[in-house]
Amino acid sequence: MTEQTLDRISDLVARARKAGADAADAVFVRSVAAGAGVRNGVTEELERSETTDLGLRVFAGKKSAILSTTTPEPSRFDALIEQAMAMARVLPEDQYAGLNPLAQQGRFTQNDLELADSAEPTTEELLARARAGEEAALAIKGVTNSAGSSASCGRTEVFLVTSAGFAGSYTRTHHSNSVCVLAGSGDGMQRDYDYHGTVWLRDLKDATELGKSAGEKAIARLNPIKPRTGRYPVVFHPRVAGSFLGHFAGAITGTAIARGTSFLKDKLGQSIFAKDITITDDPTRKKGLRSRPFDGEGMQVAPLHLVENGALQSWILDSRSARQLGLQSNAHAARGTSGPPGPSATNLFFEPGTLSPTELMADIKEGLYITEMMGSSINGLTGDYSRGASGFMIRDGKIAESAAEFTLAGNLLDIFASITLANDLDFRFGTDAPTLRTDALSIAGA
């Protein structure tokens, strides 16, 4: 089936060239997903979906157009090509447009990244996992309601063909459990959750374990105080610490740098983190949530150290943004079926530090431990940062009472420079960080 599909997409691209396209590429994505959800013991969701999407991009000189369809039948290819070519001829030129000249040559259908699991849970098994998670959470004393528990799985096949000689495909699977519950009552009610997603089913955390964790977290958040306004150390739980990597990645994409809209646009080669900080993007990690054998333009991927010894080493580039900057792509193009490639990170993470989370906060007389963030006011041009948050007070080096209804504010350059990392890195979200501490934030509270 894989080879037949690749032949079909290759035929589409070949036909586009014969119809007058100077170059062409096509992306085909086929997905199957299933999920089950419950709330307070009642089944709220049972779903299964199968989708197909095909995107064709054609070039007429430096002009290009993209058309997508959900019915990838060869009998409709000629009409698709004709419409795409007509669009390309009337659109404005883009001097940076074109296929990636560094893309691999040949056909690639095998990889050793272990991205495809053969396990296919039944609807009954998904529903049983969702119920087990909720029941475990509701069994925690003080948990008063459920906001829902779910389990899901899916399989996605990706095919990419270019007229420059690349043809490749890979399959990715995913499995997940999530539980969200409430504790307390009335205006004092608090909510929390736990979630886990993996490529392989056998690596997925037990739903009962996640439910228990969600319930305990909700209980711990009862009766929060509003911390005093001031400036003191802030420690971030791993599930929210990765947000700083997201802000960092957005600021170093080739698109942002080429537009001059990033607060890091003049920082290449400079130290922006402490000397012991390393940030890596690794699309080749086995069973990685965002791993892939080739990027969205057919280029061979490899690990990329974005920060070494605290210094910014590279932008995140696809071929178009690389041309704008007079550089070469570093195989970080992402591609959908309805738009052109663009630069994007994959498995992005901070290398862990040497201190345990306990040691990281041991000297904090008064501070905050953040477990959830909401809202976002980030100025990409200046790096100014402001977000609502909740979590716990830190007193004399220990996590203390729950805290809520406050805002964190600062500048990302100052935050980055003051980051200290713990040693508890766990590859769980795709963008991952260990427990993280910064002393560069102001708190607006009571």
From TrEMBL:
Protein name (record): TldD/PmbA family protein
Similarity annotation: Belongs to the peptidase U62 family.
MF terms in GO: metallopeptidase activity
Domain Metalloprotease TldD/E C-terminal: 229-445
Biological processes per GO annotation: proteolysis
Pfam families xref list: PmbA_TldD_1st (PF01523), PmbA_TldD_2nd (PF19290), PmbA_TldD_3rd (PF19289)
Domain Metalloprotease TldD/E N-terminal: 24-88
Organism annotation: Acetobacter oryzoeni
Domain Metalloprotease TldD/E central: 118-222
GO cellular component terms, semicolon-separated: cytosol
